[in-house]
Amino acid sequence: MISAEQLTVEFGGFTLFDSISFLVNPKDRIALVGKNGAGKTTLLSIFAGEQNPTSGRIVKSPDITIGYLPQHLLPAGRLTVMEETESAFREILQIQQSIDQLTAQLSQRTDHQSDEYHRLIEQMTHQTEYLHLISEGNYHAEAEKTLTGLGFSRADFDRRVDEFSGGWRMRIELAKILLRKPDLLLLDEPTNHLDIESIQWLENFLTNQSGAVMLVSHDRAFLDNVSNRTIELSLGHIHDFRVSYSKYVTLRREQLEQQQRAYENQQKLIQDTEQFIERFRSKATKAVQVQSRIKQLARLERIELDEIDSSRLNLKFPPAPRSGTLPLEIEHLTKTYDTKVILKDIGLTIRRGEKVAFVGKNGEGKTTLVKCIMGETDHSGLLRLGHNVKIGYFAQNQASLLDENKTVFQTIDDVAVGDIRTKIRDILGAFMFGGEASEKKVKVLSGGERSRLAMIRLLLEPVNLLILDEPTNHLDIPSKDVLKSAIKAFDGTAIIVSHDREFLDGLATKVYEFGQQKVREHLSGIYDFLRHKKMESLQELERTPASTSPTTIKISKPGSDTKQEYSARKEYNRQLKKLERQLEEIESTIDRLEKEITLLEIALNEDNDPSAFEEYQQLQQQLAAEMERWEQLSVDKERFHNGAESDNER
């Protein structure tokens, strides 16, 4: 379909890619992964034709269409949301207009036998067939469906684009690209401006769309749910795995372990052979054997270990000064912008040491409440910070506020005070800005590198209340894991505004859901909250209109009337996970057996060894048995799932 051939990219003596080649097939959903600065965005830009490599080329057919969503591309102008979105169908509208004009011309002509008349007929037939080919159904309805899936309400459709924030305008651009249905979608961090519900909608869309997808994302769950192939960029080379992201992680680790073992075994063989040669080189009786060993070494294909990028973020928050028992109390808080009510009569209490998550659709007041806590905006009602509370704040747009003309070192040196100034080099090194990297200008840093630089500010003085607004945007997956561990180990209180399910999983023990001007408390982790939300939505469909008020929704707490339901759901999840774990173990065994059978087939072709054939037959029997077990367990899992659904319906 589309191929990258010997791509090399160099910047001022630094090689970003070194002769990489791969093919993108029609049904591929490729997760492009690698550390910040590895070149993921550059590769997408080259595929989109917006950047040229130093050498090499992208080869594609002339009729292949490509849709590209970069990290920073905002539609502007005075069009409404719907008008801007429907511009994705510009080609369809132009063809329809052309057909209308041809129809009008034909209706006025009487020379039905002329060549000109037949030429017009052929032209209209061709245009009509092409229109049917590229347009499927009602494009206006498609635009509505896509906008709704990405979080827009019908009331938003007639609002002007320039009334919306940058994040919402990015959603409009994403909607336009999806509606064009290109043969290859290139998406650079598409989830950065989406809430959890919109991310789940996009997952479903990408999984079911017919074209190929190549995407960069640091949302582990999103990658895993969408990808069927993973390409890792590391130190100028690629490692290509035709599996989803989580399977790639496992296979890559196994590959490196096997490579290390094979390398160590070969090194021992080389050492033993060289010792034999050295020991018997001067003995005439061993001359033939010595020469044989020398030839053996010369023919030996040396195993080379993959070069590993071992640079790693080292993050640990300073010890938190002790605060009061209740770092934050809010009662009857209301916040309006002009006449629009964002938050109405909300209340919440956060205790010392808690790690809580603020979740909900964009525009529902999460960042607004953070600004209220920071004293950056006024409000009515009570908002009380506890005794000795010291806040460390990471804003959503923190990375974009950096001065692009300063170096990394200058950026931190300008804000550091006291003894910390003597430790700037050490801190920069811990954040992978050691050596020459500290002299880089901010403007040449990738999005993830800028986020890491902005994160350093939090380490410059001890705090006991961390407020992190979308801290994982642009951070690579290893850096996110380190940040998550650091927050877990932090002995203060943390409020995390995030849409990243994997990041919040096991980190937040309490979830505050923002919506309909209210904030609801859920005493659970993020995945329990999401499961609860799905059940709650089904229950809301059965309620009468009088009982759908947000104030009537009860929070599930230990000891409430829902305890029995909670226990049943917990047991269901336990049984389901057990079945899934058994399936994964069998799949792993099947994969191992298939690899062993393949190796034996190669050996049998080279050397007809009877013992090898017996082992081959045994492995085939084991594989058949494991396949039968897998089929039976798959049926059991389906029956178990259907049975649980039937119980819920009753």
- The coarse overall form would be globular
Mean pLDDT: 80
pLDDT below 50 for ≥5 consecutive residues: which ranges? Answer: 537-563
Record field, number of beta strands = 18
Output the structural class: alpha/beta
Query: How many domain regions?
Result: 5
Percentage of residues in helical conformation = 40-55%
From the 3D structure, determine the CATH topology of the largest domain: Rossmann fold
- The level-1 CATH class of the largest domain: Alpha Beta
Placed side by side, the strands forming the largest sheet appear as 5-6-7-3-8-9
How big is the Rg? 30 Å
Question: Describe the biggest sheet?
Answer: 6 strands, mixed
* N→C terminal distance: 50 Å
Write structural notes for this entry.
- This protein has 650 residues and is an alpha/beta fold.
- It has 5 domains: 156 residues, 3-Layer(aba) Sandwich (Rossmann fold), CATH 3.40.50.300; 102 residues, Rossmann fold (3-Layer(aba) Sandwich); 171 residues, P-loop containing nucleotide triphosphate hydrolases (Rossmann fold, 3-Layer(aba) Sandwich), CATH 3.40.50; 58 residues; 86 residues.
- The protein has a 6-stranded mixed β-sheet, sandwiched between helices. It has a 6-stranded mixed β-sheet with strand order 14-15-16-12-17-18, with helices on one face.
- α3 packs antiparallel against α4, α9 packs antiparallel against α10 and α18 runs antiparallel to α19.
- The protein is globular, with a radius of gyration of 30 Å.
- The protein starts with a strand and ends with a helix.
- About 4% of the residues have low confidence.
- It holds the Pfam family ABC_tran.
- InterPro entries: AAA+_ATPase, ABC_tran_Xtn, ABC_transporter-like_ATP-bd, ABC_transporter-like_CS, ABCF_ATPase, P-loop_NTPase.
- Keywords: ATP-binding, Nucleotide-binding, Repeat.
- This is Probable ATP-binding protein YbiT.
